[in-house]
Amino acid sequence: MFGFFKKKARAMQLHNLNAKEQNRQNAPQKPAGPALSANLEENLKIIRNTLGQSPDIIIRKFNFGPQYSYNAALVFVDGMVDKTIINENIIKPLMYDMHIVTGEHKFSLDNLGDLRNILLSVSDVRNITLFDEVFKRSLYGNTILLLDGFAAALDIDTKGWQARSVQEPSVEKVVRGPREGFTENMRFNTALLRRKILNPNMTIEQMVIGEQTRTNVAVAYLKGVTSPELVEEVKARLSRIKTDAILESGYIEQFIEDAPFSIFSTVGNTEKPDIAAARILEGRAAILVDGTPFVLTVPMLFIEGFQAAEDYYSRAYYASFVRLIRFMAFFLSILAPAVYVSLLTYHQEFIPTPLLITMALSVQGTPFPALVEALLMGVMFEILREGGLRLPQQVGQAVSIVGALVIGQAAVQAGLVDQTMIIVIAVTAVSSFLVVTHTDAATLLRFLLVLLAGALGAFGIVIGLLAVLVHLASLRSFGFPYLAPVAPLIIGDLKDSFIRAPLWTMIKRPQLIGNRNPTRQGEHLKPAPPEKN
Q1: CA distance 188 to 182
Q2: Which of 311, 321, 413, 486 has the smallest number of Cβ neighbours within 10 A?
Q3: How far apart are CA 47 and CA 58, in angstroms?
Q4: Nearby residues of 196 by Cβ (< 8 Å), 6 or more positions away
């Protein structure tokens, strides 16, 4: 009952926020700031006063035209522009090539379009009239051309900062499949997506979020496949974000997720263009943030954490086997320490006698109960893992391996923990790496279930699992059930859930997500040998 009223209140709140945002967008727009004047020196004075005396802000004044009668200035940020473009495609045409033009034709500069259409050999040039646009575009890596006598300027695309090249992602590695990964440059990332989906309906809509950082954020989707309601919901949630800084896609994720107090993420992320493209082709939307190689995808289902890109590049039998291994590893990672504590503390009768004798001998002499041992070793494992991540790669690997061996062996020899506990924690640690998407949630669940097992035994574990199951069933990701296609049960979508059926059998897109255009391939595509004559 309370949950129902809570959802209703949340829906009404979102509706009111959407209405306010719509009213704000429909309201008459006030001027975005002071406009440029026709006096070049006055414009440059305002620019200097606003941007300060920073050495990376370059203002290059020069004269051009017949008898060098036109006064002009270029404004750009050193380190964010390609100076070759500025020298060869802006300054050289204006200062030297204009003499060739004026030698044959009488040249009269009536408007800035004359420069843009005749002399500037740059692909992207547009007029701007406001100081806010001058500051914003120059800080994005563009060059601003101002002329004396014109109350406008030319915004010229000259971006050329250093960027990391396309490389293989460090986390989502594959044996078979594309090795390319997203970079920190959003325009590179949109190009990588378009290389995968050569469809004119592939749509990318861009906006700016962050009052101080002014970060470019883009929403990518496939028109005709992605639900318009989903696209509008994504854009509405993004437009409601009012914050100073967006430095990584994780900022966006925390502002737009459905269940901010859940330990499970309801927004997917990936570093691989092929995974992002596959999710878009299923009917999802992707969110790209400038400055990070992680692309968000929504909606996200729980089952996505057990799917890998390589599942679809390998044959169905082995892919299904590996996927089942991931499910088993996930349950091992959250249940192994709790089950061991429960058996050793409350349910010794379930352990075979020879194994019970071995376990009793290993436990003999240890000063702590099984619950304390499991918690201590679990915390120690998290410390070693975090240390390995934060240190340089070569040093981090050495610290993780040496730390685990030395500390584990020393703890056993000192009689602080038993040998069986070391084995259980080692199995848990290895299993946790198989399902990276749910690693954070699995870590918290592991400690919670250990505590319940230490307090209530197997009954506590069952209560904890039921509570997690109820919580998962109540989650939504942009309105879509988190446990689909299991709850609600969708028989057709089970082909790509616990197992991966052959590609030629997956004719339909996921029913809930891709219902706008459900068919993704033809029927009767099962391969067969040629008929004998």
Answers
A1: 8
A2: 413
A3: 11
A4: 273, 274, 276, 277
Q: How many CB atoms lie within 10 A of CB 316?
A: 17
pLDDT score for 436? 87
Cα–Cα distance for residue pair 92/87, rounded to 1 Å: 6
Q: Which amino acid is at 406?
A: V
Measured CA to CA, the distance from residue 120 to residue 144 in angstroms comes to 13
| Spatial CA neighbour of 214 closest among 266, 291, 323 | 291
Q: What is the Cα Rg of the chain in Å?
A: 30
Tokens 């992002």, residue located: 276
The pLDDT tens digits for 34-47 are 889 989 999 999 99
Which H, E and C letters describe 165-218, residue by residue?
Answer: CCCCCCCCCCCCCCCCCCCCCHHHHHHHHHHHCCCCCEEEEEEEECCCCCEEEE
If you count them, how many residues does the chain have?
Answer: 533
Q: Which residues touch 299 (CB under 8 Å, ≥6 apart)?
A: 230, 266, 284, 477, 478, 479, 480, 513
Which pLDDT does position 2 carry in this prediction?
A: 44
Q: Taking the CB of residue 83, how many other CB atoms lie within 10 A of it? A: 15
- 356-393: b or e for each residue (b if 16 or more CB lie within 10 Å)? eeebeebbeebebebbebbbbbbebbeebbeebeeeee
Distance CA 119, CA 129 (A): 21
DSSP annotation string for 54-76: -TTEEEEEEEESGGG-EEEEEEE
Q: What is the tens place of the pLDDT at every residue in 65-108?
A: 777 778 899 999 988 888 888 988 888 888 876 655 555 555 55
pTM of the model: 0.85
Beta-strand pair 143-147/153-156: antiparallel
